[in-house]
Write a structure and sequence with these properties.
With about 250 residues, the protein is of the alpha/beta class. It has helices at about 55-60, 100-115, 125-140, 160-175, 185-195, 200-220; strands at about 5, 15, 20, 25-30, 35, 40, 45-50, 50, 65, 70, 75, 80, 85-90, 95, 100. The longest helix is centred in the C-terminal third of the chain and has 23 residues, at about 200-220. Helix 3 (about 125-140) packs antiparallel against helix 4 (about 160-175) and helix 5 packs antiparallel against helix 6 (about 200-220). It has a five-stranded parallel beta sheet. It has a four-stranded parallel beta sheet with strand order 2-5-10-13, with no helix packed on it. A four-stranded parallel beta sheet has the order 3-6-11-14, with no helix packed on it.
């Protein structure tokens, strides 16, 4: 611990092994604060368990608290504020200056839904997304050939193009059809099939190519590679040669 360090009681703080607090940290421990092994706290981090009623009259008479749980190997950046009742999972990283309140976060996500999933859509937005995809494709296509070393993430027919295709369909239909609002690409493709928004054969081709790219993604992660590249020439032959390129961004209206 790097002093100074401030707390309410100290008795309600439970620390794992090798926890480190940098200078000027504050823990208001009117309730339990449990911190896992090897957690790191930057300067001026504040952890609050104390809270008060929202009603002004009650605030004059009452104070309450909610426990805080912080897992192992968590890194909390400087000046972050962890609010009452928050749980932070192991191996998480909390950015400097962040504030954590689950209820407030859920309220925010709920409030912005109409702006994410708009019931009426300007198709100029879709054209802009297509232009972005084309620029990315053109940039990474320079000198690129399908075969060993081909970029599976950003190259033509790669992960990003599959994601863009699915997301555009979701943008068009998600404002009125809640069922297509799946966050994962493969789930989104399945939901779009069930909603009769994309052809099942097209979706299967996209899903097959996406799965192939993800497998190579895992391989790249295993060797800590910076880019996702096709490892062997055989992967580019036969029916695995991304059969969906001809219809990418063909929109059904």
């Amino acid at each position: 611990m790097q002093p100074p360090f401030y707390c309410d009681y100290g008795a309600n703080i439970e620390l794992g092994e090798r926890v480190f607090f940098n200078l000027n940290c504050v823990v208001l421990d009117v309730c339990r604060v449990r911190i896992g092994d090897y957690a790191l706290f930057g300067p001026a981090v504040q952890v609050y368990t104390a809270t008060h009623p929202m009603n002004a009259a009650l605030r004059r008479k009452q104070e309450s608290g909610k426990p805080v749980e912080i897992g192992a190997d968590v890194w909390v950046g400087g000046a972050a504020i962890i609010l009452p009742g928050v749980t932070i999972g192991s191996r998480s990283v909390i950015g400097a200056g962040s504030a954590g309140d689950r209820a407030l976060g859920e309220h925010f996500l709920s409030s912005i839904q109409p702006f994410i999933w708009r019931r009426s859509l300007d198709f100029g937005v879709i054209e802009e997304v297509r232009e972005i995809s084309a620029r990315i494709r053109d940039h990474f296509a320079q000198g690129a050939r399908l075969g060993p070393g081909f970029d599976l993430k950003r190259g033509r027919g790669g992960i990003r193009e599959v994601e863009f295709f699915a997301q555009i369909q979701q943008m068009i239909h998600g404002g009125r059809q809640l069922s297509v609002r799946a966050p994962a690409t493969l789930d989104a493709l399945e939901a779009l099939i069930k909603a009769d928004r994309i052809d099942p054969a097209d979706a299967r081709a996209l899903a097959e190519a996406e799965t192939l790219c993800v497998v190579d993604h895992l391989r790249a992660a295993h060797v800590d590679a910076d880019t996702l590249e096709i490892a062997v020439a055989g992967i580019c032959q036969g029916r695995r040669r991304a059969p969906f390129w001809s219809f990418l961004f063909r929109l059904r209206h």
